[in-house]
């Protein structure tokens, strides 16, 4: 699965986690909840 460029930039933020659930890729950030994204 190709990871979108927007997810890559969010991944670099402090506190960010990349999680895969049921084939959907999420970026979650507990430290700064504004930085959320999903793909798939």
UniProtKB/TrEMBL annotation:
Protein name as it appears in the record: Large ribosomal subunit protein bL36
Transmembrane segments: none
GO cellular component terms, A-Z: ribonucleoprotein complex; ribosome
Claim: Ribosomal protein is one of the keywords in the record: yes
Keywords: Ribonucleoprotein, Ribosomal protein
Organism placement in taxonomy: Bacteria, Bacillati, Actinomycetota, Actinomycetes, Kitasatosporales
GO biological process, one term: translation
Gene responsible for this protein: rpmJ
Keyword flag rRNA processing: no
Family: Belongs to the bacterial ribosomal protein bL36 family.
Pfam families associated with the record: Ribosomal_L36
UniProt-recorded Gene Ontology molecular function terms: structural constituent of ribosome
């Amino acid at each position: 699965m190709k990871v979108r460029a927007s997810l890559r930039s969010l991944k670099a933020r402090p506190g960010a986690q990349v999680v895969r659930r049921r084939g959907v890729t999420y970026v979650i950030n507990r430290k700064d909840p504004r930085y959320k994204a999903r793909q798939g």
